[in-house]
Amino acid sequence: MRIAVCPGSFDPVTNGHIDIFERASKLFDVLIIAVFHNPNKKPLFDMAERVELLTLTTKHIPNIRIDSFSGLLNEYAHQQNANIIVRGLRALSDFEYEFQRALLIKKIDSTLETVFIMTSSEYSFISSSGIKELASFGGCITGLVPKGVEDRIGSRIKKV
C-alpha cells in the first residue's frame, strides 16, 4: 500500500490546498493530510479547528485521512507507515524553500521521498497568510477558500 503524508499548517485551508489534495489522492492508496504544530506561526485556528475544517472540506475525497502531529516529520511518517511526503508548489520561491527541506529530510532519513505537485495556475497566487491578510482588511475571499472555511474566517477575523 502506498501511503503518503501531506504536511502543513493549513491555517486556513485554501482552494489551492484542496487542488493539491485532490490530485495527490489519485497517486496514492492513502493520503494523510497532517496538520502540524509550527511554533514559528501564530495560528488563526487552533489545531482541532484546522483538523475539523480539513475534514469538512475533503470529505469528497475517499482515500484521505486527516491527522495532526508535533515533532519531526520523518518520525511521524514512519509512525504512519508512509515513505512519501507530498508538497504543493505555487511558484519558484516555493520550490527553492521546499527543495531545501526535501534535501534535509533525505539527509535525515534516506527512506523518505518527497513528491512535488504544482498547483493549478488558477490557485498559484493563493496563500493562507494572504487569505488572512485580505480578510482582515475586509477583502472578498470568496472562491479562494471553501465556503465553510470562508464563513469561519469571517466570524473569527476582526476587520481592520
Please sum up the structure shown.
Belongs to the bacterial CoaD family. This protein is of the alpha/beta class.
Which SSEs are present, and which pair or pack?
Layout: E1 3-8, H1 15-25, E2 30-36, H2 47-57, E3 64-69, H3 73-79, E4 84-89, H4 92-108, E5 113-118, H5 128-136, H6 147-156
Catalytic activity: (R)-4'-phosphopantetheine + ATP + H(+) = 3'-dephospho-CoA + diphosphate
Pfam families: CTP_transf_like (PF01467)
Cofactor: Mg(2+)
| CATH top level class name | Alpha Beta
Computed Rg: 15 Å
- SSE order: EHEHEHEHEHH
Question: Any idea what the CATH architecture is?
Answer: 3-Layer(aba) Sandwich
Share of residues in helices = 40-55%
How many separate domains make up the residues?
1
Arithmetic mean of pLDDT: 94
CATH topology: Rossmann fold
How does the major sheet shape up?
A: 5 strands, parallel
Tally the helices.
6
Structural class: alpha/beta
GO molecular function: ATP binding; pantetheine-phosphate adenylyltransferase activity
Pathway: Cofactor biosynthesis; coenzyme A biosynthesis; CoA from (R)-pantothenate: step 4/5
Cofactor: Mg(2+)
InterPro entries: Cyt_trans-like, PPAT, Rossmann-like_a/b/a_fold
